[in-house]
Fold this protein.
Amino acid sequence: SQKIEQNSEALNIQEGKTATLTCNYTNYSPAYLQWYRQDPGRGPVFLLLIRENEKEKRKERLKVTFDTTLKQSLFHITASQPADSATYLCALPSSGGSYIPTFGRGTSLIVHP
Amino acid sequence: GAGVSQTPSNKVTEKGKYVELRCDPISGHTALYWYRQSLGQGPEFLIYFQGTGAADDSGLPNDRFFAVRPEGSVSTLKIQRTERGDSAVYLCASTPQGGGAPETQYFGPGTRLLVL
């Protein structure tokens, strides 16, 4: 099964700066990787999916990279806002050929005004 | 039209009791997933339904946990003889197809279960 590592410590940044969150995995290289946002007391909400043959994916102020050599994905939020404060989860297929996601523990982002 | 809904939003029960948690997926979504999320952790997979059948129940921790989806829409997660360690948020998600391609998981708000 896949093991996913996300920094358990909260990331505190100032409004307007770029937030960068890391997702590392240790076993097989997945065909794709997803990022979700979770607010307190709510279920995760899908943000972006990046496939193994894509180095980078963008959506508005969000950018995701996927480095299969490093077994790492980086999630960037540019021009961060206090409303971006949430927990961000990465998810990968639980095993080769599976579409059931395994989630990381998530990293809490706090954007200070 | 609406998203995934789950009831109850909160459930407090006593050790040893039986509980049922309900999930209403997005209309027309074939696949339904149950997860359990403990504080500070990501969602942990429990079971996945494709239509009415449980396609993968490998995440159910033991035989006290059972889930059904008799008509291929609403699903109920059943926990017998609850233990304090069962306390967590139980999340439900649905996807249009399930299997065959990566899909966006649409999550409900979860049911917060507290076993005293």
